[in-house]
Design goal:
single chain, about 425 residues, alpha+beta, two-stranded parallel ribbon, 9 helices, 6 strands, about 65% helix, efflux transmembrane transporter activity, cell outer membrane, signal, porin activity
Length: about 425
């Protein structure tokens, strides 16, 4: 009869878990990443910044196009005037009205500025590439965060399952202890100990449920959706054990976004020096305009006049002396280029260091996964043997509890080892710049 009650309790618990699972959305990692790419605010901001950089890449922004302006000037006056002519004639007029109206269209075009405009255009293109690199860095970082948060949930879910299992076992132990107490084969102390241990397991389960719920909120936040959205993740946590350090370093040198950004910054600094050096050459501008002018005067030889027509010409300027500002600016620009070269070397060194340390951690975690998997298998066998012995009363409750805790702890350690291994894999792929989108 006791075995039937245990089976019934296990079936009810299993049915409840299945029903709850079916009511929840099963969120895959691919779906989580897709939602984050569509909704994450940092990704949206980085995308908008890239759009700004693309918009700035224009020949007009580089100064290659002329400027065309329309001008209107209207001056009016009311004055008391008096005039004395050469023949001695005097003319006076109060409240004399005068009007001067000028309007037209003018064009100004810099046709040569020491090739500064071409260097500026190239610099705008490099700034666009920098924006693309910054977007890539944001994408990889956020995808890495989603990966880590997702597999943390997988780990939390596995630990929940382990604690559910220990609750079932503790219920079995309490039932057996009560039955043995009823028939006089056990003391009340055994029943109380079983009840205390069951309560302890239930407290641990509640704490784990709280941690699991908070981890869900974090993942929903990363996906920029309603934080109360309920879902379930997959139960499998697999670590790629085939990553090789030389391949990762080769990938990092060619596509790590932080290294790419430093290389682009060096090109931007070199183009800035070209623009500064352009000031050593003359600047030539052409201009033309079509204007209409009309003036009216209440007093004088000419009371009304009009004119219209083209104006055109050119101007040229050359800086001869500016207080040595040109030399100073060129010197500063060359220092900035040197700094950018050192930043590339520094980033390379930091990248190789991070890859080497992360890879060593990755190898250690792979070994730990193998060890903890064996430990879990041994602990499970030990628990099964101990449970059988406990049922027939050949071992103490303390020995049974020890075997039970060893099994639960082994499952938790194995799950945590897998999670730490996955984090190492994610970190290596992030550094290599090939984290799958």
């Amino acid at each position: 009869m006791t075995h039937y009650k245990i089976l019934l309790q296990s079936f009810i618990l299993f049915f409840f878990c299945v029903s709850e699972t079916n009511a929840q959305e099963v969120l895959t990692l691919e779906s989580a990443v897709k939602i984050a790419l569509e909704n994450n605010y940092e990704i949206k901001i980085a995308t908008n910044n890239l759009t700004i950089q693309k918009t700035n890449v224009a020949i007009g922004n580089a100064g290659m196009l002329p400027t065309v302006t329309a001008n209107v000037l209207d001056n009016n006056s009311i004055q008391n005037s008096s005039q004395t002519r050469q023949d001695g004639t005097e003319n006076e007029l109060d409240n004399a009205k005068n009007n001067n109206l000028t309007y037209g269209v003018g064009l100004n075009w810099t046709i040569f500025d020491g090739l500064r405009m071409f260097a500026r255009m190239d610099q705008l293109k490099e700034l666009q590439k920098l924006g693309e690199t910054q977007l890539k860095l944001t994408l990889i970082t956020r995808i890495s965060d989603v990966n880590a948060a997702y597999y943390d949930l997988v780990q939390q879910q596995q630990q929940l399952a382990a604690l559910d299992t220990t609750i079932v076992i503790s219920n079995q132990r309490l039932t057996l202890a009560q039955n043995r107490f009823t028939i006089g084969k056990a003391s009340k102390l055994e029943v109380l100990n079983a009840q205390v241990d069951l309560n302890t397991d239930q407290v641990a389960l509640l704490r784990q449920k709280e941690l699991y719920a908070n981890s869900k909120i974090l993942l929903n936040q990363l996906m920029a959706r309603e934080v109360s959205t309920d879902f379930k993740v997959i139960d499998v946590l697999e670590v790629d054990s085939l990553l090789l350090l030389p391949e990762l370093k080769a990938l990092a040198e060619s596509q790590n976004p932080q290294l790419e950004a430093q290389i682009i910054n060096k090109k931007v600094a070199e183009l800035e020096l070209k623009q500064i050096k352009a000031a050593r050459y003359p600047t030539i501008r052409v201009n033309t305009a079509y204007n209409f002018s009309e003036s009216q005067s209440s007093l004088g030889f000419v009371t009304q006049s009009q004119s219209r027509g083209f104006n055109y010409g050119f101007s040229a300027s050359l800086n001869l002396f500016d207080g040595f500002a040109q030399n100073r600016n060129e010197k500063i620009a060359k220092i900035l280029i040197e700094n950018s070269k050192m930043s590339i070397d520094q980033q390379n060194l930091a990248l190789n260091s991070q890859l080497s340390t992360s890879y060593q951690t990755y190898l250690t975690n792979l070994e730990l996964i193998g060890l903890e998997e064996k430990n879990e298998s041994i602990a499970k066998q030990n628990l099964n043997i101990t449970l059988d012995k406990f049922r027939i009363g050949t071992i103490t409750t303390l020995e049974f509890r020890t075997a039970q805790l060893n099994y639960v702890n082994a499952k938790v350690r194995y799950s945590n080892a897998q999670f730490q291994g996955k984090l190492s894999e994610i970190a290596l792929r992030e550094l290599a710049g090939n984290l799958i989108f």
